[in-house]
Amino acid sequence: MKRKIFTTALLSCCFMICMAAAVFADLNGKWTGNLTMSDGNTFPVSYEFKVDGEKLTGTAQSPQGDVNIEDGKIKGDDFSFNVNVNGMDVPHKGKVYPDSVSMNLTVSADQLHFTLKRVK
Fold first, then answer.
1. Does residue 73 lie within any of the structural domains?
2. pLDDT digits (tens, 9 = 90+) for 58-72
3. Which of 100, 54, 90, 94 shows the shortest CA–CA distance to 70?
4. Are 79 and 102 in contact (CB under 8 A)?
5. DSSP codes, 50-94
């Protein structure tokens, strides 16, 4: 009897772990969206992410050009990185969802929020 209960509990745990892994989206690849600045101007942006364990690298593209992602970290579905734009570090923080990426960034004193969608 104890063996059946233990086996059932073990199989249930394995099933839940597999389901949790399937829910988390993969950040690898190209994502695009629009960034609305505090003055109301909107710019198209895209990010090419590469994940290796908990290390996040890649590039960010905007009308001003391409910049490398620096100091990138990912843990679960939360991630953070910096990009250097004209000598100024711009910190980014985000969260991965199955169909989108939600990001916050700080430019000077402005806190900006935007959403990215995967390029198919």
1. yes
2. 999 988 789 999 999
3. 90
4. no
5. EEETTEEEEEEEETTEEEEEEEEEEETTEEEEEEEETTEEEEEEE
CATH number of domain containing 37: 2.40.128.20
Query: What is the model's pLDDT at position 9?
Result: 52
Where in the sequence is the domain holding 74, given as residue range(s)?
25-118
**Among 24-33, 74-83, 89-98, the least confident range:** 24-33
**19 falls within a domain:** no
The predicted model scores a pTM of: 0.75
Reading the block at residue 111, the tokens are 């806190």
9 is a domain residue: no
Q: Closest Cα partner for 103 from 5, 10, 28, 33?
A: 33
